[in-house]
Hints:
Layout: H1 2-33, H2 40-50, H3 55-78, H4 86-124, H5 127-133, H6 138-176, H7 181-191, H8 194-220, H9 226-255
Helix pairs in contact: 1-6, 2-6, 3-4, 3-6, 4-6, 4-7, 4-8, 4-9, 6-8, 8-9
Amino acid sequence: MLNIFQKTGALVLGALGSMGRMFIFLATTVYWTFLPPLKVGRVMRQLRFIGSKSVPLIVLTGGFTGMILGLQVYYTLRKFGADAYLGPAVALSLIRELGPVLSALMITGRAGSAVAAEIGIMRITEQVDALESMSLSPYRYLMTPNLLAALIAFPLLGSIFNVVGIYGGYVVGVKLLGLSSGTYFSGIRDFVDIVDIRQGLVKSACFGIIVLWVSTYQGYHAKHGAEGVSRATTTAVVMSSTLVLVWDYFLNSVTL
């Protein structure tokens, strides 16, 4: 019996210690963000990698998400004679919830995993150690550019996801199911408020911090060998996706 308590206590202490190290890592990254000089070139490079190269994926998933949402919501509303509210239903679902969450999950799979693998390879090939030996902070060159790029890219990509998704719902609702175009867009204009848009942007920014924080942390602490990089990459994707959903619930419980 005592052995069970010892193992449970060791697991709890290990989890708490890991959480503490992750928060110290984030705090250190934020600290280096405000120390000049800012590596603008590296920020732009990561912005292109995280943002620009993710646009085709976001457009594709956003369009089909809006089309699926429009199809399902239309037949649900039709049962209650409220099919005229298809536009605001699709728009609010995307802007407040699906857009930020699904775009963050897509970027996690495409960019977050790549960032974790890249930094992990730099760790096992001792490139990170080389930076430290030259008195150059890895946080300034590796972590801070990724964090700043995520803060810019995630809200923009989430907005693109929302716009494409709304037009995907329009294609299904208006072109396929025969709903009036004026009814679709006037409902969006009447029911979507600036508060909804702001909430979606805040969510996307928070998810960007979470995804790049976890990805850079896992890559930075990757163990030696290909297996270590593989494990760090997998852990980064799984943990980032889970924390996005958990934090989304927390934000909803606070703002609703």
